[in-house]
Each structure stands twice: as C-alpha cells, then as structure tokens.
Amino acid sequence: MTTGTDHHLIEIDGLTKAYPGVVANDDVSFRIKPGEVHALLGENGAGKSTLVKMIYGLVKPDSGTMRLNGAPFAPAEPRAARASGVAMVFQHFSLFEALTVAENVALGMEDPPGQRELAHRIREVSETYGLPLDPDRLVGDLSAGERQRVEIIRCLLQDPRLLIMDEPTSVLTPQEVDILFETLRKLSSEGTAILYISHKLEEIRALCDSATILRLGKVVGECTPREVSARDMAEMMVGTTLHVPTREAGKGGEVLLKVSGLSVASTTPFGTTLKNVHFEVRAGEVLGIGGVAGNGQDELLAALSGETLAPPDAVSLRGRPIGQLGPNARRRIGVLAAPEERLGHAAAPDMSLTENALLTGVIREELATGGFVNWPKTRSFAERIIAAFDVRTPGPDNAARALSGGNLQKFVIGREILQKPDVLVVNQPTWGVDASAAAAIRQALLDLAAEGAAIVVISQDLDELMEISDRFAALNEGRLTAPRPAKGLTVDEIGLMMGGAHDMEAAHA
Amino acid sequence: MIRLEKRPSPSKAWTYATPLLAVLLTMIAGGILFAILGKDPFESIRTIFWDPLFNAQFASYSRPQLLVKAGPLILIAIGLSLGFRAGIWNIGAEGQYIIGAICGAALGLALYPTESRLIFPAMVLAGALGGWAWAMIPAILKTHFRTNEILVSLLLVYVAEQLLASMALGLLRNPEGGGFPGSRNFRDYPAAANPELFEGTGMHWGVVAALIAVIFAYVLLSRHMLGFQIRVTGQSPRAARFSGVSPTRLILVCMGISGALAGMAGLFEVTGPAGQISIDFNVGYGFTAIIVAFLGRLHPIGILLAGLLMALTYIGGELAQLMLGLPAAAIQLFQGMLLFFLLAVDVLTNFRIRLAKREAA
Fold this sequence. Notes:
heterodimer; A: alpha/beta; cell membrane (chain A); ABC_carbohydrate_import_ATPase (chain A)
C-alpha cells in the first residue's frame, strides 16, 4: 500500500490556527505518502476539523506551511484545493433530495460534462470501486450509505490524490462499512492517499497504515494502528486511563415500560412513520435500540417522551396507559427522556444552564410554586448537575451554546438522571462526545439501571449498545425488530437486524 | 474588507447600546432629510426632541402630552412584546385597539345617562374583551388552519377601520349631534369618562394601566413559568415542546393578552384624550407600538423608555409641523427610520465587525 519510497504526497509543518479564546491547532506537523491511509485521531475539540479544513482550503492557517508533492500548497478556497487534487467527503452530506444522483454530482463539479456522459462515468466509477449506485435515482430515495457513495463518487470523478473522509462510518451499517473499506483499500492500492478521521478505534486498526493523534490542538503521538491496541490509542487520545463501565447484570425486575402496537404517523414530510412497535423494559434493564439514523429514532423518542401523543394503550407504565399523556404529565410519573439534538431540542442554546435546568426539571424538582419560579432552587439544581456530572463550565449562568458538545451532553443527561426517573429514554447519548465523557455518561446510565430504573438507549454506535445493553433491538423504516439478549450477538446478526430481516427473529423469540 | 464574525454569546453591552445608536443614526439621517427639505437640520432636531419638554413657550402644553401619547403606546407594546418574544407576530394591534374602543364605548353609550361607579370599570373590561376577541380571530385561524397570523391580523385592521367608520356614522352616532358623524362626547358623561387624574400631568387611567402592565410583564417574564415558556418558545420551539409547552395554548394566550391590552388602550383613548368615537380617532398607535416594542428590546423597562421616546417624536413632530412647516409624512418617515436603524445595528449584538484582508470563505 505505501510506496516504500521517501516521497511524500503532503507535508504539513507547524500549522497553527487560533480562534478567539482557543488555539485550535498548535504547531501540528505530519506527513502522508501516496497511497497511505492515514488516520487522524482525537477527541471532540482536539482540532481535527480545523486541521482538515486548512488542508481543504476552508480555513487559513495563522502560521505553518503545507507542501503537496514538494511544491508549496496554500489553498485559498476549496476550489483551489480540489484543483490540486485534494477532495473531501464531509460528515454531513450536502445533497439535494429532489435531484437525481447524476444531477447532484454535476452540481459539485467545476466543469460538468453532459448528463449522459456523466451518468456513464458514474456507472464506470461505481463499478470499478465496488460502490453500486444508479445515477438516475433520486437522492431522496437513497439510504444514508448510498448518499455517502454519491459524495465519494463526486470526489473520485476528479481523480483526487488525497481523499479526506470525516467520520464516514457514523451513518453506515456494518455491511456498508465493509463495502466502504474495500473501496478505500482499492483506492489506496492505486496510489490515492486517504486522510481518515474517526474516533472508532477498531476501524482505524482495520484500515489505516499510520495514525496521528491530536489532543487539545497538539500532536501527542503517532503510531501504526495495527501494532497497538485500541485501548492504547484511546488512552493517548484522552491522556488518561480509560474507565471501562462495569455491568452487574440486574435481571428480573417488574415490567416498567411497555410499548405495544405503537404506530405514529410522521408529523414532518421527511420523517419516518412508526409501524406497530412492540417492546417492554423491566426495572434494572437497559434496552439498546440500534439502527441507521432516520429509521424512526427521533419519532420513537418523541412518542416515548410525550412530544407526540399515541393511543393510551400503546404506551404504558406499570400497566397504566400513558400514551395520551404529554411530556409534563409523563415526567410527573417518572418517565423522562433526553433527545438526540442537544442544542435546540434537549436544551435552549441561548439560555443559561440554570434556565435549562428549569426546562425539564420544574416538575420533579418542584422548582416552581404557584407558577412562580424559585430561581435560587433552580440554580442550585443546575449546580448539582454540574458538580455530579463534571460539566466543565465557569458556572450555571453560562449559555448552553457556550459549552462544548460533550459537556452539554453531560449536563442534559445529568439533568434527567438526577431527577431519579423510573424510565429514562435517551437518543444518541454519546454522539459527538469525547471518550472520557462518553464513558462517564454510559456509567451513569448503568448506575441508574442498577438502582432499578428501566432504560431505553437509542444509538447508532453499536459498540456502545453492545457495551451497555441487556437486550438489543433495531429500528428499520419505523419497524422495530423483536429485542434479543445482547450477549452473544454477532456483528452479522446485528447487521441483519438493522437491515430489516424480520423473519429471523421468530426462531429466537 | 469588512467581515462579520459571530459572537460566542450575544453582547450584553451592545444589547443596551444599539437602541441609543439607532436613535443617534436616526437623528443624523433625519437631519439630512430635513436639510434636503430645506429646513435647518439642527433646528428641526431640536424642535422634535428638545422643545416639547424644555421650551418655555410650548412645554406647558406638550409635557402632559408625553404621558397621553406614551400611555397607549406602552400598553399596546407590552402586550405585543410577549407574543414577539415567543415568535408570535401580532401585527394587527391597531385593529384590536379600534374594536376595543368600539366595544367599551358602546357599553358606556348604551347605559347613558345612568350614573354608577361601576360603569367605567365595566367599559374597560368590555374594551379588553373586544380587543381579545378580535385577536382571537387570527389566533384560532392559526392554531386550527395554520394560517399566517401576520397576514390575518394585519388585514383585520382594515376590517376594523371600516367597522369604525360604520359605527361612527351609524349605530354609535350621537343622536343629539345634529347629524354629524361621531358618538356622544364622553366628557359630557362623567360616569364613563377617563379624565386627567392630576391637573397638568396628562396622567389618565390608561397611563396607570400601562405602568401596571410594565410591572406585570416584568414579573411574568422574569419570575413566572408562563414567561419562561414564552421565552423558550421564542428561542427554541422544539426545546419548548420537549419541556411540555403547548404551542396552541401559547398562541392563544399571547395573542389574547396583546389583543386585550390593545383593546383597553383603545377604550382609554376614546373615553379620554379622543373623547368620542369618530371615524379617525385612531392615529396609528397600534402600528407605532411595534416600533416601541422592538426599540425597547421586547423588555418591559425598555418598552417604558421607548414609549416615552416615541411619544416625544409624536409631539415634537406636531410641533415641527406647526413651527417649521415640516410635512406630516416626514415625521412618520422619521419614526420608520428609527425601527430601520435599530434592526440594522442589531446585528452588532450577535456579530462583531472585523476589518480584515479578503479571505476565502
């Protein structure tokens, strides 16, 4: 894969970029050879995004130099970077759902050929690299994995010498990950270098030739991922020894939450309709719900939190129908939730942490009397969350949006856990959260279960689900597979559940 | 090359500075406008902002006018600000103001010439109910049929104006008025009148109500759950839903409060300073109150100050018409510019300006 010569495709020397109040990159240097798959590892806020944005011409470094094939390289804008052979696939796609694959590809090209010619080339590239894709299909009909292929093919049509991929597997099923890796290996063998950003350590070990590890904007280590353990890399990333959650199997509590025949029509045109969802969760149990994003996760959370109402019997707590109850009525009886989107859903971005503590805590923490808010009490509730969950912030008067993603997530989850729920439903509890914060959040969920709560964790991170779930189920196009014990599930079985092979559960039920 | 850079959090200092800066810019632009009209800009600005309060010749008349004009502006703006904070845009306060005046006045006129202390309070209530009911039309159309409240409430202003004309010419016309349009004058009916409470201050019951509304709104927004729900809904509707706020209920409550306050303002005006229901007793307070609400940062205390300032431009404007022969439209333009500049400089609250060499975006 590596060419074995001393020639480097891109040399990065002493790149520094400071933003008001934070140095995003501090004297970062590394080199990538042609055909090398190079991992960029780091926690959230370590400076990975800023670094690749500088390479892609989106951000201009304060100091430091880059050389591409030995020549000075300082792209003023992404177009210049693309012209020099640097392409990037972003974590969030920029595709128009109402247009076809070919039309979307053409929009991203400097000088697109005619539609027929382009369709021909898309087919050619997709066959060459094992990325099945029909150029005439509407992007709106494609899965997340297929949409990513559109982005990749858009890059490949420009014959890049360096392909930057930002967390590409976060939206893929295990099978789709395998296909992607095959493609990347083939590209690498043809001499295209790949800069691969991820925090999924096993993937990096499977795919990458070398890795640069960033912490707080600085390079703190380089390694050959195949030769070190995932745990070692994680510890380099966070700079401390990882705390692995320990799970005491708490079995056999009473059924707290029961969902039967829950069908909810989507309220938005692009949403997913929930179809006949069944499951139950016992006291002390964690039910993990996997599935590729956009298959009904948000809708399921909303139906459980009370944001969307259902027929009374569709959701019940200890046998009492609660489907018709709104969010506050459910909070009153101990059913709490933490949605995926921290800013704007779980928390109001411009409001202080104190106000955000009031947002969901007012009922169970009795923060208001006769409609009048008890601000000192609310503030002390916020302070308790900050202290108990190690939220890094100057104080409860800070706006929610001033917190980093991980810290805000700790606050949001902590806010619900401190209210001692009987049932807690969380969606993507550790999405975009660094490893140590993620471990702390998972441990807190497990502790809560150990105290006898029933917990539903909706997540796209399979490793996380396998780590904390007692039982596992997957959402697919609004349908939920029958939950199965998490212990002993293989990656293939999980993939099939996520892919929607519903008939196989019958044998296990 | 000027670049705008988003601030990590809104600047407190600029939040307070932008209204002042907007006033300053309006004075400059207004001065230029007056100069083009061939008037001395400095004299014009002085006539509008200084003379009404401190000129020995005019102050005795115009100082009381300050409260007379500020009262309804503040009362209406306080109501509007609650909805605006929640992202509910009642633009039709002028219509609610008219309907409130008609309903309250109609009750009083129906009871003429009965004497009772209860008549005036009952008229205030009827005025509030009238404004509330008129605001419920766009509110219910919005919650049930998802119509746009901006459009519906605005269009209902013109319906209200037609209704006012028909009332002044028909049902409510003074039977002893010799066929002239307009109702009986409330000055001749003490039980239903809203007189000046203290000689020479301009203080009437509407001003009292406005001050109470300021305090009420302040407490509501800073201490009460409803105020908190209003603020959350405006900033982040999904978070509000998640926290259990019913958007339907909030729309009805906010539209209802703003309609009721506007209706009350109308009743106070028609029974006091205006004196009678006439075809054109309304002078656009309902629209100007929108400027007052924004100029006051949708904050009760800010609205109190902004209301006084706008009242000053009304009085000063009249004075400038009288003394300098400035056209009435120039004053309205002046008031409009104030909102325009405020919205324009508002960007400084959330962004900082960077002077930098051109950089690729």
